[in-house]
Write a structure and sequence with these properties.
Elements (H helix, E strand, L loop, with lengths): L3 E5 L6 H16 L11 E6 L2 E7 L12 H14 L2 E7 L6 H10 L6 E6 L4 H5 L15 E2 L8 H8 L17 E6 L5 H12 L2 E5 L7 E7 L2 E7 L1 H6 L6 H14 L3 E7 L6 H12 L3 E7 L10 H13 L7 E3 L8 H15 L5 H14 L12 E6 L6 E6 L7 H14 L8 E6 L1
Parallel strand pairs: 1-3, 1-4, 4-5, 5-6, 7-10, 7-11, 11-12, 12-13, 15-16
Antiparallel strand pairs: 2-3, 8-9, 9-10, 14-15
Helix pairs in contact: 2-3, 12-13
The structure holds guanosine-5'-triphosphate (GTP) (2 copies).
Family: Belongs to the TRAFAC class TrmE-Era-EngA-EngB-Septin-like GTPase superfamily. EngA (Der) GTPase family.
Function: GTPase that plays an essential role in the late steps of ribosome biogenesis.
Organism: Mongoliitalea lutea
Length: 437
């Protein structure tokens, strides 16, 4: 289960600075191994051996001068639903404001742990100002003065925050059963697909939800395969509220994606691969998820024996260097290839957990590298000596060589292609790193 921390607070108190600080530290640790997702509102962090995600809800409040209570409610509601812990950021510099009080009133309705983070405590003198926020009476926890710009005070805060996480977080999930998320634009047929899985064979094993606000993991045993579909049904209902569709569907995608191994990006055959679909695919890749595309409503397409190949080719072009993503054509309505879609998702999961022995890697790849060695740079020859797959959750291959810094992107792509030709990593992002030897 994902550990999630939400940052709330009025504009300009330093939420994004704080967010970046939390996420940067993890990034520094991880950068050379797995590459880490980072965007404005959502990122990964680590403290004390626990992994968690951080949502900066700040950007969702529009208009920094005129923040209406409805907006605050919307922001905070999101935090309450998604997070294990809420960090309410205030500003020591400005002291307690009316808007802070409004936020506090909304937060009071929650039963999740709340910490008041008194930011801009740049000096000991400023830190004393933090005491003022006790008058909110919002939380039994200590108030933590911090300075997001320098990071001072954040360690003490995080020591406390992580005590609320039930486990280590997503970096260390239970092995074995593939968790599959079905994502896609509204109306492509996601619910119909779930119902088709549910309806026919009626063999759900469990339907467990930690709390109503967590992602729901439904475990299936169908067609001889064990798998889990991750979903956030509670949020889905709210997506029916019109103006919030985009807002909630993004949050929903993040949460389901976070809790899954493989994402099925469902697209509408009559519309093709659209930019939103590409965004979901990129999000999956950045988060090291297995990815496949399910082109649904295939029954609505007028076709001959060449149509499928033609559409596949067009999609491949849009995928560019991510051509390793498999595409399957289905009709949920006519129950066409529904089983194969699940089978493919499970296969992608198997590929994702594939381990190649060092001897096999070297036997197959070193001769290819010998044929096409990395181009010499500044008159220096680059010699790759051996290759090994790192013991990571996602496929990462370390190439040991004399001058790692001299190898350029095109050669990395060459190596990735050779890896994919020799071993089945269909649907799986793979990473290549160079190490000095
Ligand atoms: N002195 C001081 N300034 C800070 C600190 N942290 C953030 N700031 C400044 O406060 C201002 C607002 O910071 P942001 O991180 O953009 O604030 P925010 O809460 O994300 O603002 P919105 O995006 O409007 O919601 C910036 O000028 C920051 O440089 C700090 O620890 N000390
Ligand atoms: N022709 C055809 N229609 C389909 C197919 N799959 C789903 N539909 C129809 O498409 C419509 C939308 O299906 P849903 O399952 O509600 O789509 P969804 O992706 O869950 O939609 P949201 O809940 O809005 O995200 C419904 O009218 C379905 O009956 C299919 O394979 N072929």
């Amino acid at each position: 289960m994902a550990n999630i921390v939400a940052i709330v607070g009025r504009p300009n108190v330093g939420k994004s600075t704080f967010f970046n600080r939390l996420v940067e530290e993890r990034k520094a640790i991880e950068d050379n191994v797995s590459g880490v997702t980072r965007d404005r509102h959502y990122g990964h962090a680590q403290w004390g051996g626990k992994f968690f995600s951080v949502i900066d809800t700040g950007g969702y409040v529009t208009g920094s001068e005129d923040v209406f209570e409805a907006e605050i409610r919307k922001q905070v509601k999101l935090a309450l639903e998604e997070a294990n812990v809420i960090l309410f950021v205030v500003d020591c510099h400005d002291g307690l404001t009316d808007l802070d009080k409004e936020f506090a009133n909304v937060l009071r309705t929650s039963n999740k742990p709340i910490y008041i983070v008194a930011n801009k405590a740049d000096s000991a003198e400023k830190a004393l100002m933090a005491a003022e926020f006790y008058s909110l009476g919002l939380t039994d926890h200590e108030i933590f003065p911090i300075a997001a710009v320098s990071g001072s005070g954040t360690g003490d805060l995080l020591d406390e925050v992580i005590t609320h996480f039930p486990d280590q977080g997503d970096e260390n999930p239970d092995e074995g059963i593939p968790k599959i998320a079905i994502l896609g634009r509204p109306n492509v047929g996601k619910s119909s697909f779930l119902n088709a899985l549910l309806g026919k064979e009626r063999s759900i094993v469990t339907d467990e939800a930690g709390t109503t606000r967590d992602a729901i993991h439904t475990r299936y045993k169908l067609f001889g395969k064990d798998f889990i579909i991750t979903d956030t049904a509670g949020i889905r209902k709210k997506a029916k509220v019109k103006e919030d569709i985009e807002f909630y569907s993004v949050m929903r995608s993040l949460r389901t994606l976070e809790d899954s191994d493989v994402i099925i990006v469902m697209v509408d055959a009559t519309r093709g691969l659209e930019s939103q679909d590409i965004n979901l695919i990129s999000l999956g890749i950045k988060n090291n998820k297995g990815v496949m595309i399910m082109v649904n409503k295939w029954d609505l397409i007028e076709k001959d024996h060449k149509t499928m190949e033609k559409i596949k080719k067009e999609m491949m072009e849009k995928l560019g260097e991510n051509r390793w993503i498999p595409i399957i054509f289905t009709s949920v309505e006519e129950k066409q290839r529904i089983f194969q879609a699940i089978e493919l998702a499970v296969k992608v999961y198997d590929n994702k957990t594939r381990r190649i022995s060092t001897s096999k890697l070297n036997d197959l790849l070193l001769p290819e590298i010998e044929k096409y060695p990395p181009p010499a740079l500044k008159g220096k020859y680059i010699k790759i000596k051996y290759i090994t797959q790192l013991p990571t959750k996602n496929p990462v291959f370390a190439f040991f060589c004399n001058l790692p810094q001299y190898i350029k992107d095109p050669y990395t792509r060459f190596l990735e292609n050779r890896l994919r030709e020799n071993f089945d990593f269909e649907g799986v992002p793979i990473k290549i790193t160079y190490k000095k030897k």
